[in-house]
Amino acid sequence: MLAGQAWSNFMDKDTYADTVDFFGPVGVEFIRQAQNRYSTGLAEGLSLDLEAENSEFLTRTLNTAATALAANAGIVDIMPDFIAALRQRDSWGAINVAGIGRHFNTDLGASGDVVDSAGWGFHAGTTIKLPFIAEGDKIGRIFNAGQGLGRYLTGGPGSGTVMVHCNNLGSSTQNLSGASPLTNPGCNPTMSVATSWGGVVGGTHKWTSNLYSNAYYGHTSNDYDVNAVGARMVRVLTKSTDSSDANILWTPVAAVTVGFEYMHGWIDTVSQTAGTEGSGTASCFQLSMNYGL
User: Has this prediction a pTM greater than 0.85?
Assistant: First the structure.
């Protein structure tokens, strides 16, 4: 049994990328939060983890200027996020499979409406050791997909995970300025969640007993139902992100690791202009030193 703050059960610690950058490549799960977990062994090397974790999300709604804003107002966390994970660990590597179920609920207050929706996600990860190349060498891959994954997925939709909007897009209430469109008669508020998928592939090579390198490529794609929520709701949201990481890590003495890494990333966003996209790239070098007992 575990109760307290820990890495999410949805994360794959066996296949997680070994990067100098703290958040790692896009396409992975990265979250630490309050939780209650039950773990048990099912067979040799096979374990099951069942967990209830802290539920947290932002809703994206239309404000008085009819531009989408993310806010916590009205959110009611009536149940935690439920996660189940199967993990098989053996001399050849590991396989991790996990699923998550979520529930989103928002009280719109003045309008008297309460809207809700469900979210779900799936994870699969595999690590394969390659001792015939060099002791410590391995390759791995991670795949994640779901609706409403939100902050669980690096490079995910962020504030666009949960969107509260008018159910009748054909009416003038959807993009009406002045008072919030959600309070206008005929709006019939409803909630939509974004669909996301992503993954990472990479590997590790040991050059010597105290010198090794890692290389990874990650990708995340986010899909928003523009026909349902309207063009205003999805402006400036992330459509896709890609990242590539390469590093070298050296352990000169026990408990000390020095790392150098190059990262390059690409991003495509929904532009401020409806129906168009924006894009950009960025690169960085990072140097780190870690001392651990």
Answer: yes
